[in-house]
Amino acid sequence: MALNNVILLSQMAGYVIAFILSLCIAVPMTLHQDEFSNFLSAFFDVVGCFVLCGLSLIAALVITFGFIVWCNDMTMRFPSCDMASGQDIDKQDGIDTSNFYFELGTAQFGAWASMACWVGLSIFALLKMFQQHEIQNMRASMLRERQHLINEAGLDKRNNQPYPEKNPSPQKF
């Protein structure tokens, strides 16, 4: 029993440390959001969101299939899965199954909700990447248009000859 408490406390400490470290990343990023807003960062956001979306999908599938297997095993002995929760399945090992059905259902809901959130974040990351790509294309086309206008302004409209240079180079004979 003491080992379970140590594991639980170390897990909670790990979550608290991860939360503090995530704040150390999130706060500076929000303060300097305009500096990090480019196509490369948007691309990394998309890749990261898709990876985490896939991992959360795998976690949700593992929980769901585990829940299905547990329910199939329990319905061999009890009329339904929720009736098996709270029953003495193995008294010798001291296994407590009270609220197991509810807790596993909650974990399943949380895993699928997490996956749905990552899908939404992936869509928003894709939209941000497309926007950054559009902005880069707009800047490139504006640069080409500006160069085109500068080149046209360099020609004299009356005789289509370039304007004389301000500092003509010396002519060599």
Summarize the structure.
This protein is mainly alpha-helical.
Describe the structure.
With 173 residues, this protein is mainly alpha-helical. It has a domain at 40-153. The protein has four helices and no strands. The mean pLDDT is 79.
**How many angstroms does the end-to-end distance come to?**
102 Å
Give the rounded overall mean pLDDT: 79
Tally of DSSP helical segments: 4
Helix-residue proportion: over 70%
User: Please, what is the oligomeric state?
Assistant: single chain
DSSP strand tally: 0
- Describe the main β-sheet briefly: none
Class derived from helix and strand content: mainly alpha
Structural Rg: 32 Å
- The dominant shape is elongated
The percentage of residues in β strands lies in under 5%
Write down the secondary-structure element order: HHHH
Low-confidence stretches: none
Record the SSE blueprint:
Elements: H1 2-31, H2 39-75, H3 81-84, H4 100-153
Q: Could you list some keywords that capture this structure?
A:
single chain, mainly alpha, 4 helices
